[in-house]
Amino acid sequence: MKNSISLTAVAAAAMLLSLSACTKAEKPSSDDLQPVQKHSLTVSVGDPATKATGITDANEKNVKTLDIVVFDADSTLECYSRVTGAKSTTISVSTGTKYIYALVNWPSALSSSVDEESDLKAIQAKLTDDDKDNLHMTGYVTKDITADGTINIDVYRKVSRIDIKKITTAFTSPALAAANFYVDSIYVINAVGSYPVDDSCWSDKSSWGSKVDWYNKEGFVTSGADDMLLDAGVALTFSGNTSKTMSYSYYVYPNAVTAANDQNNGTWQPRCTRLVISARIADGSSTRRVYYPITIPVDTANKIWSVEELKITRAGSSSPDQPVVTQSCTFTINVKDWAGTVNLNPSI
């Protein structure tokens, strides 16, 4: 997914009084300095575009707010402008090299904590501020402002999306095949719930896990991020070996934990993100809770990790964070950028 953002420079002096509000970091001046040449920049945001197939939710493309943040060549704030309910704004900047950031659907009061470019990079998007129709997006360009012209900035979502499309029961045990199998919730655990504008702000990336928010550590715990991580109203009944199609989506920030460094013991450490299918097996007089965790390598933003089909062949795990150790399910994951997708077809 990307937005195209155009900045058209026109004559400065006659336009200054009509510009939208723009917070500017003024620099010291003296009487013998030459006047600083200004350019009026009209910023417009077009409808987002995407290369990913099968995306039908137009809400993921919403642009509810637009922030343009401009830094001088020395990385100090020159100008900041925010508009709500519109896809364009007009700002005034001086001639010279500029570092220009576009932020879509970020919380207000952004400028109050930003004096330097490093301040902006360190601000974290929060999953509790996201919604399925209000996803954080960012983009950046370096541009020499010398004359009229057009600047295009590609803006990308900070989250990735996890989909599940189909569950098939293919129990090899006659007893399990004869039992009733109920899926009553699907959720994401070990979910990274915050991420900076630019992770280059982390000088020591080895400790990144202590710098972000985590949700559903090792299991589901209700929180302000439930809308992005949980489908509690799932009611799928499987009698015998059969298949059910569905369309559930979940949103998380990138997780740098690799499979080689994954953890699933009782002592919390940063660990891989997992999509969990929570189910009940009812075989006559008893009912037991089982879990089918699918480890999702969400290593970057703006991708779709799609579980095309989860095939269940036997009873699952007793813990949502404990991957099934036997070959009780298989799956295939299809990964796409929102610019494409990663398809998963697990068999458990």
Report the structural category.
mainly beta
Overall radius of gyration:
24 Å
Write the element-wise H/E pattern from the N-terminal end onward. Answer: EEEEEEHEEEEEHEEEEHEEEEEEEEE
Strand percentage, roughly? 35-45%
What is the name of the CATH topology of the largest domain?
Immunoglobulin-like
CATH architecture grouping of the largest domain: Sandwich
The residue ranges in which pLDDT falls below 50 over 5 or more consecutive positions are 5-21, 24-31, 51-56
Distance between the termini: 32 Å
The first-level CATH class of the largest domain is given as Mainly Beta
Q: How many helical elements?
A: 3
Question: How many discrete domains?
Answer: 2
Shape: elongated
Residues in helix, %: under 10%
Question: How many strands appear in the DSSP assignment?
Answer: 24
Arithmetic mean pLDDT: 81
Largest sheet: 6 strands, mixed
Give a quick precis of the structure.
This protein has 3 helices and 24 strands. By secondary structure, the protein is mainly beta. The two termini are 32 Å apart.
Question: Helix and strand layout, with pairings?
Answer:
Elements: E1 4-10, E2 38-45, E3 65-71, E4 77-84, E5 88-94, E6 96-104, H1 117-122, E7 124-126, E8 137-145, E9 153-154, E10 156-157, E11 160-169, H2 174-178, E12 180-189, E13 191-192, E14 194-196, E15 214-215, H3 226-229, E16 230-231, E17 236-239, E18 243-252, E19 273-282, E20 287-296, E21 303-307, E22 309-312, E23 329-337, E24 341-344
Parallel strand pairs: 11-21, 11-22, 21-24
Antiparallel strand pairs: 1-2, 1-9, 2-5, 3-4, 3-6, 6-8, 7-14, 8-10, 11-18, 12-16, 12-17, 12-19, 13-15, 19-20, 21-23, 22-23, 23-24
